[in-house]
Amino acid sequence: MDVTSILDGLNKAQRDAVTAQNRALLVLAGAGSGKTRVLVHRIAWIIAMQNLSPHSIIAVTFTNKAAHEMKSRVESLLGRSASSMWIGTFHGLAHRLLRAHAMDAELPDTFQILDSDDQLRVIKRVMKEMNLDENEWPAKQAQWFINKQKDDGRRPADIQHYGDLFTSVHCNVYQQYQDACKIGGLVDFAELLLRAYELLRDNQHLREHYQQRFQHLLVDEFQDTNSIQYAWLKLISASDCAISIVGDDDQSIYGWRGAQIENIRRFAQEYDDVKTIRLEQNYRSTGAILKAANAVIANNQDRMGKNLWTEGGDGEPISVYAAFNEQEEARFIAARIKDWYEQGNSYRDCAILYRSNAQSRVLEEFLLQKQIPYRIYGGFKFFERAEVKDTMAYLRLMYNSQDDAAFERAVNTPPRGLGQKSIEKIRELAREKSVSLWESAWHAIEIKALSPKASKSLQGFLDLIKNGYEDFHDLPLSEQIQLTIESSNLMEMYAKEKGEKALARKENLAELAGAAREFDGDDYPDLSPMTAFLAHASLEAGETQADQYEDCVQLMTLHSAKGLEFPMVFIAGMEEKLFPHMMSMDEPEKLEEERRLAYVGITRAMKKLFLLYAEKRRLWGKDTYPAISRFIREIPAELKEEVRLNSQISQPMFNAFEHKDTTTDINGFKLGQIVEHPKYGSGVLLNFEGEGDQLRVQVNFETVGTKWLMMAYARLT
Ligand SMILES: Nc1ncnc2c1ncn2[C@@H]1O[C@H](COP(=O)(O)OP(=O)(O)OP(=O)(O)O)[C@@H](O)[C@H]1O
Ligand SMILES: [Mg+2]
């Protein structure tokens, strides 16, 4: 192949980055400037130019999906396989390392990953054993404490507590929790990173092995790395390995999870021979979208500063829509998407972004109503559904009887007549002997510690797991799952629930068996299919792979939209307290992080951006009347256009209200009519909702813009 063809489709600065020979490369650039593209081309360039095996390359991406995409783009640039390259998220790579060297990492071969729910469950149990009052010492707080320590690389022994009660108690909980995880062979998310770091730090032989193997380390979205991830990168790249990182300080949105923008500055100081490249041309968005993003982020103080421009024209202005409430917001979005689809566009090219997961429910309702196919990305958490977790608990226990979290979940789901007392007894015995719940359960039966009835049902459960493993483990994975669902009587339990829900559960379980089918091949040579699948379930939770070929609208939180792009984007709920989030409004630093999130959201849009807010919203169980988000106000007026529903607006907008007839009599008024308000002056009547005393109308006033008013009090003429 002609190697230089890899440089096609890159601008000068991008080529410089792709071909840089320095040991350390830093590409610091704004959204849509081609950072990810540079990484992909750089990998291909290195392999082709230096005739290097992909085996010598390790690359870190933000999601598993991004990793798959990157690998296949590298392969298509090279025209050959790059499957021996290590590419994945920090968690995925750490997991891979720990699996390969479980013994050196002091983990059993069968170790399981704890998701954050399971983690909380284990912490709760530990705290109960320590007789800590849950009201005084909430488990969530302990969980936060533990994860924070791990993110910063600290073990209980490393924590200084000068007699401070909060720290010393939590430190003890951390220690007990760590012991419980050790017995169970359990590894939580933060532990994956810390353990993988310690593995290399403490094991010279392994460290040297990997340092020799990896000639190039590349990292996307570097601005969101935390301390332990940074330390891990430094270990791997300590000898001759070249390191390339790309990032954007304005898109750092995981400060709450310990990510540190400072790592970018540290990088420039701590590495020798750093070449810094800035990319300033944006290829993603229209001029209007880009200017809006630049204007919003300009309100942040602490920035490294960049200047983004585009060759393209301004395109359409940004549409701002004031909805009466969240239902109407959702109805508007659904109608707009339907129009777009009917004009010959694809659903998959549209995304609806929101600040908080809870917002998705109403949106889903209206998409369903309009029969618009959609996928929730990030928030869906297929592997976190109860029925899926129940089934997984059985599987985990079959494969690792030491997994206490799985034992706790499975032992009484479905209920098999084991009371809290019996279970407490099993826990107590486990504690005394420092063994797993599984072992202690056998022991409890042996020493007749339980009532005969409880003993019998416990025995039934233990046999189920034991025989299950013996009978199934040679079968294909999907069949194992199918048989587990049947033998555990889980399906029977769900079938007793009411209609819709039971059906959804059934479908999810069918999907679970289906998802497992992918693992029956030999794509994961170093892992057994079940191990690969269980790890996948933990690591890809929340990242359900929307089927690429399925044409559906993408719903996701602003956080999970990072790195992605869509021709048409809606950002719903642009309201003070929702976005910026209430919890972040009082601290300047947190507010700046919210603003970076707004910047991320706006810059996902390629051609068309809608910003929506509701004048009334049910939030946390209460009706609220939020103010318009400051992030909308920060966009210069000339870039925005308020979507109006008066007679001049384009027909498609009207479709949003097709159920409303412009001739309907609204207390003597009609849609589109000019009305007078004693305070706001004249405006156009746009919409109405409710009837009688509850009748509300939406009027677009010349003076104050769109408002919803109670007809009974509005004194319109
Ligand atoms: N030189 C170029 N010519 C044409 N298109 C380009 C060029 N560089 C990048 N692009 C396109 O611009 C878009 C944005 O690129 P990319 O996703 O790599 O940007 P990014 O800097 O990683 O953005 P983000 O900060 O959002 O992750 C992509 O569709 C990409 O294919
Ligand atoms: Mg990117």
Describe the 3D structure.
The chain has 717 residues and is α/β, with parallel strands linked by helices. The chain folds into five domains: 3-101 and 194-281, 3-Layer(aba) Sandwich (Rossmann fold); 112-184, Arc Repressor Mutant, subunit A (Orthogonal Bundle); 282-379 and 543-645, Rossmann fold (3-Layer(aba) Sandwich); 382-541, PCRA, domain 4; 654-717, Thrombin, subunit H. It has 27 helices and 21 strands. The chain has a seven-stranded parallel sheet. The protein has a six-stranded parallel sheet with strand order 3-2-6-7-1-8, with helices on both faces. Strand 6, helix 10 and strand 7 form a beta-alpha-beta unit. The longest helix is centred in the middle third of the chain and has 21 residues, at 452-472. The chain is globular, with a radius of gyration of 28 Å. Residues 646-660 have low confidence and may be disordered. It binds adenosine-5'-triphosphate and magnesium ion (MG). The site of adenosine-5'-triphosphate has 19 residues, from helix 2.
Which class do the helix and strand fractions yield?
Answer: alpha/beta
Bound molecules: adenosine-5'-triphosphate, magnesium ion
What is the CATH level 1 assignment of the largest domain?
Answer: Alpha Beta
Dominant shape: globular
Write the CATH homologous superfamily of the largest domain: P-loop containing nucleotide triphosphate hydrolases
Percent of sequence in beta strands: 5-15%
* Major sheet size, sense and barrel closure: 7 strands, parallel
Q: What is the fold-level CATH name, i.e. the topology of the largest domain?
A: Rossmann fold
Q: Give me the number of helical elements.
A: 27
- Strands across the major sheet, in which order? 11-12-10-13-14-9-17
How would you state the average pLDDT, rounded?
A: 87
| Domains (count) | 5
Radius of gyration: 28 Å
Uncertain regions: pLDDT < 50 for 5+ in a row? 646-660
- What is the CATH architecture annotation of the largest domain? 3-Layer(aba) Sandwich
Taking the alpha carbons of the first and last residues, their distance comes to 76 Å
Number of strands: 21
Helix amount: 40-55%
GO molecular function: DNA helicase activity; hydrolase activity
InterPro entries: DExx_box_DNA_helicase_dom_sf, DNA_helicase_UvrD-like_C, DNA_helicase_UvrD/REP, P-loop_NTPase, UvrD-like_ATP-bd
EC number: 5.6.2.4
Domain UvrD-like helicase ATP-binding: 8-286
